[in-house]
Amino acid sequence: MTGILEIWWVWLALALVLAVAEIFAPGFIFLGFAVGAALTALVVAFSTFGFPVLCALFAILSLVSWLVMRRLFKLPNEKRKVFDTDINDN
User: Fold this and answer.
1) Are 28 and 73 in contact (CB under 8 A)?
2) Is residue 63 a contact partner of residue 44, using CB atoms and an 8 Å limit?
3) Percent of the chain topping pLDDT 70
4) Using one digit for the tens of pLDDT, what is the confidence trace for 49-90?
5) Distance between terminal CA atoms of the chain?
6) What is the per-residue pLDDT for 1?
7) Which residues contact 69 (CB under 8 A, 6 or more apart)?
8) CB contact set of 35 (below 8 Å; sequence gap of 6+)
9) Per-chain mean pLDDT for the chain
10) Nearest CA to 19 among 6, 28, 10?
11) What letter would DSSP give residue 85?
12) Is 55 helix (H, G, I), strand (E, B) or coil?
C-alpha cells in the first residue's frame, strides 16, 4: 500500500493549489514550488520512491525551478541598492 503523498495526482493537485496561490502573492513566491510539485508528480507517475525521497526531490526541483525562473524573469537593467554608510554613522 502506498502512502497518500506517493500518488501522482496529489502532487499535481498541490501544484495547482500553489499556482493559484501565486495569483494572490506577488513576486513569484509560490510558482517555483508549483513547478517543483508538478515535476514531482511526473516522477511519482513513473517511479516508486518512498516519501522521504519524494520530499527531498520536491525541495530540489522547487529550488532549481525558482532559480531558473529568477534568471528568466529578471528585469533587463535590474540594479540592487547598496548602502555604503550606516544611518548611525556621524
Assistant:
1) yes
2) no
3) 90
4) 888 898 999 999 999 999 998 888 777 776 777 777 877 776
5) 68
6) 47
7) 28, 31, 32, 35
8) 15, 61, 62, 65, 66, 69
9) 85
10) 28
11) S
12) helix
